[in-house]
Amino acid sequence: MTSVKDPAIPPLISIVGSSGVGKTTLLEKLIPELTHRGFRIGTIKHDVHGFEMDKPGKDSWRHKHAGAMVSMISSPYQIGMVRDVDYDHRPEELFPFLSDLDIILTEGYKQKGKIKLEVFRPEVNPEPLCRDDKHLIALVSDTHRNLGVPRFSTKDTQGLADFLINRFDLTPSDKE
Asked: Where in the chain do CATH 3.40.50.300 domains reside?
């Protein structure tokens, strides 16, 4: 599988694996590694169970619970939005909310047809979830499993960052 870089659309890589294997921990290490190298990172956490972003009783929570379809909170440092939707959006449908990024990393989105890397620990799940998935580009595991893709230790964040940069021909955005 080859990568074709479209400068208008950042590459989207799904970090997948069974619950409890360390997907969030990996992202907590990979994001600063890429950010330190000058890349602008976006993330999407997929939660099939729904979520509550704002705290009960806060103004934006009160607006939403009063019936607003969209509630936003804005400050000089960040913007947050909660919006009602009528279906589970694919990551590509969220691109309009993620402008000016170099790469988007999702946690979840295990569906077929998405580029992904899997975090695998045999003590959590006996076999990798994506062992037969042609869209798997790398495995992050401290045990040796040959899935025909590069394998990185959970401690090799620099190697994984190098791999993603090379694989997707990433160039840091100009920051002004």
From this structure: 12-48+88-167
